[in-house]
Amino acid sequence: MALTQKEYVDELKLEWKKLWRERIDDKVRAEGIAVNDYDSLFIDKGTVIHATRDFKVLNFKDILDQHQVTNAERYIPPDPKVGGWTKFVKDNITKQPTKKRATAYLEAKKEKPQAKKNTRGWLHI
Asked: What is the pTM of this model?
């Protein structure tokens, strides 16, 4: 059962990718329109799938829920805002603590003497 469900979700993912690849981008209205009927995704030809204003975004998880797929979260990656590997790396690995000892032993910077401008006078910095 689990294998057939995984295959079914893979077929839905292929349809989902095909939908986004074959859409028509209307630059005047700033929206994307479906080219064909996608019965498995519950999307008809001419449906707005992407827009900039007053639009409910299509969600693959909602489509899986309509198909009554159990554990739909298992088949899709988590939202980047919620977390995932990238967020874990950014939060825990790339933020290295600064070395406080190294900054304590830095020499004081010597001030350079005021520069002359073409030997006609002093530059005011």
From this structure: 0.59
